[in-house]
Structures are given as structure tokens and as C-alpha cells.
Design a protein that fits this description.
Layout lengths: L1 E3 L7 E3 L10 E7 L6 H12 L6 E7 L6 H9 L5 E5 L6 H11 L4 E4 L11 H8 L5 E5 L7 H19 L11 E4 H4 L12 H7 L4 E5 L17 H17 L4 H29 L7 H33 L13 H8 L1
Parallel strand pairs: 3-4, 3-6, 4-5, 7-9
Antiparallel strand pairs: 1-2, 6-8, 7-8
């Protein structure tokens, strides 16, 4: 593999004709008000990847910064061959920034990390090497995390336990942004809301092989953290979404239909009971709370069953309109491989 290198610039891979080709590794870094950290971060990433002999690019996504980060990224990107600056129109949140980075990354391996210098770029070659053992996603574990124990460490530990028990993906550190992915896996993930916290769970739904390795973690040098206890409610809501997607993404009727049938059955039984009391024993039922309960259960059952049918239609439309399969093929071996290629 050859490299282009000019004064003041760092190497990118090139083909025999001298044209810049696709990099092996894309490092995606969401940036929000990290102007002091950006120069040191980019140099540290470049320094960690150059000895590995792999062509790389750095994709910095500015998420509506107001401290001059976007101007600095424009300046650096115009003078470096290894940096791509993606400037968003406003602050959309980390999930949108990561999605933009994924869409602009060209490497066959994608590494994500924070832009505050707390993740250590020297861990990137280890994460990339771990993928070669057959994994699709390698997640960093900040084993010796340099954060406040009460406001960051304790909530994070509780969240990791809860997320692991709900999703079935047991990781020590869901919140660590330092991860490596195979590009084909990332392109299968549709991010929205604030689902960047649950990328391993989303990857697991897609059939990814996941592992976790300890990584270094440093105390913040500049600025202040953008995270706090206020995000707890959003995490819980997103976790509910992930739990539903894991079990019922392609079969929503199984959950809505089940609850709908149960509600319909209970409402019908109560209705039959009240009818017997009215017609068989001549008792007044108009002022009984059971009558209201029977009507509510019956109507709720009809609504839930209808929701299930609508959700099934939406899922079918989603998959068919985007030509998106409901399965993922890891590999094809033997005669089927030739048939698939010819088709």
C-alpha cells in the first residue's frame, strides 16, 4: 500500500495513478463545543494510526457548535488530506451527528470516539485488530473511568445493568463512545432519536457478533461535560423502544394482538355476566362499575387489535418500500454462492 504525503499533511492511501482511494479506517468524531481539544485530538489520532500502516481518514462532525469549533474544523480540513469536516446546520444531538459521520465515512472499518480527549486514540489499533478475530463490533470498556463517582459513575453502572438485562447484550460500559465497527454493520443501522447509546443492542438485533475490551480513559482537560442526570428519562424511553424492537420489530401484531385479545375476552366475559344478571335475574346493571369496565375493556381490545394490524402493515411497507430484507446473511459457501452472484 502506498501513501501520499506532502509537507504539513498526513498520509492517505492512493492508487497507482496517484488518485486518492478509499481509506481502510474511518474515525468518526462528533464535535460540540470542543475547540480547545480539536487540534490535540486530530494529531493524537493521526499519530496512533500512522505506525499501523493503514490508510485512514478522520471524519469530524460539528453538531452546531457555538465556540468556534466549526471554523477551526473548516480551517484544518482545508490543509489536511486526512480530515473531513462535516458541519451540521444546527445542534441536532449526538445520535444525528454520529449518523452523519457514518454516512460520510468511506472506510471498511469505522471507529467512533468522543471529541473531548477522554478517549485515548492509542487504543484504536487494538479495537481494529480485535475485529479481525471475527467480531462485527468491538466496544470499549472504561475500566478505570476518570469521572465523578456520584453524578457519572453510579448512574452509568446502574444504567449498564438495566440495559444489559433488558436487551440481553451484557456490556460493562454502554456509554463508552470508543467502538469499532465493520462498515457493513453500520450501514444496516438506522439511527434516530437518541439511540446512539444503544448501538450494541441495535447491532445485536441485526445479528452482529459483539465483544468488549478495556480501554484507557482520561480526565477531561477542557470545557465541561455535556451529560448529566437529566438524560435519565430519555434513556428509559429509548430503552423501552429497544426492548420492543428486539422482540417485536417484525411482528408487532404478536404484542398488540395478544393484549387486544385478552382485553376483548375480559370485556366479553363481563358483558355476558352482566347480561345474565339483567335478563336472567332482572337485576339493574346500569349503575354498576362493572358495566363501565366491560365497555372500556371491549373498546380497548378492539383498538389494540387494530393497532396491531396497522403496525403490521407499516412494517411490511417499511421493508418492501426500501427493499430492506428481514434477515442478514453473514456468508454463503458452496454452490449457493455462485447462484447468488449470478442472480
Amino acid at each position: 500500500m502506498t501513501f501520499l504525503q506532502s509537507e504539513g499533511q498526513l498520509p492517505l492511501s492512493s492508487d497507482r495513478n496517484g488518485a486518492i482511494s478509499k481509506p481502510d479506517i474511518s474515525v468518526v468524531v462528533p464535535i460540540y463545543n470542543e475547540v480547545e481539544s480539536i487540534p490535540r485530538l486530530i494529531e493524537a489520532i493521526a499519530t496512533s494510526l500512522q505506525p499501523a500502516g493503514l490508510a485512514y481518514e478522520i471524519v469530524c462532525v460539528d453538531d452546531g457548535s457555538s465556540d468556534g469549533s466549526s471554523d477551526l474544523l473548516r480551517q484544518l480540513a482545508s490543509s489536511r488530506t486526512d480530515l473531513q469536516a462535516v458541519i451540521l446546520r444546527r445542534n441536532y444531538g449526538q445520535t444525528a451527528a454520529m449518523s452523519a459521520g457514518f454516512n460520510h465515512a468511506r472506510g471498511s472499518i469505522i471507529v467512533t470516539m468522543d471529541g473531548d480527549l477522554q478517549n485515548d486514540p492509542t487504543d484504536i489499533p487494538m479495537l481494529v485488530g480485535k475485529l479481525e478475530e471475527g467480531y462485527d463490533l468491538v466496544s470499549g470498556w472504561r475500566k478505570h473511568r476518570q469521572d465523578d463517582a456520584l453524578t457519572r459513575l453510579l448512574p452509568s453502572k446502574l444504567a449498564n445493568m438495566l440495559i444489559g438485562s433488558v436487551t440481553g447484550v451484557k456490556l460493562h460500559d454502554y456509554g463508552c463512545s470508543l467502538k469499532s465497527y465493520r462498515a457493513e454493520l453500520v450501514h444496516d443501522l438506522n439511527l434516530y432519536g437518541e439511540l446512539h447509546r444503544f448501538l450494541p443492542a441495535l447491532a445485536f438485533i441485526e445479528g452482529a457478533r459483539i465483544t468488549e475490551v478495556p480501554v484507557r480513559h482520561h480526565a477531561r482537560q477542557f470545557g465541561k461535560s455535556k451529560y448529566g442526570l437529566g438524560r435519565t428519562f430519555r434513556v428509559l424511553m429509548d430503552l423501552s423502544t429497544i426492548a420492543f424492537m428486539k422482540k417485536f420489530l417484525t411482528k408487532p401484531m404478536h404484542v398488540f394482538g395478544l393484549f387486544g385479545l385478552v382485553s376483548l375476552a375480559l370485556g366479553t366475559l363481563l358483558g355476558i355476566y352482566l347480561t345474565i344478571l339483567k335478563l336472567g335475574f332482572g337485576q339493574a346493571i346500569g349503575d354498576r362499575p362493572l358495566l363501565i369496565l366491560a365497555v372500556v375493556l371491549f373498546i380497548t381490545g378492539v383498538q389494540l387489535f387494530s393497532f396491531g394490524l396497522l403496525a403490521e402493515l407499516l412494517m411490511r411497507t417499511y421493508h418492501e418500500s426500501q427493499n430492506r430484507p428481514i434477515y442478514r446473511v453473514r456468508e454463503v459457501v458452496g454452490a449457493e454462492e455462485t447462484t447468488a452472484k449470478e442472480a
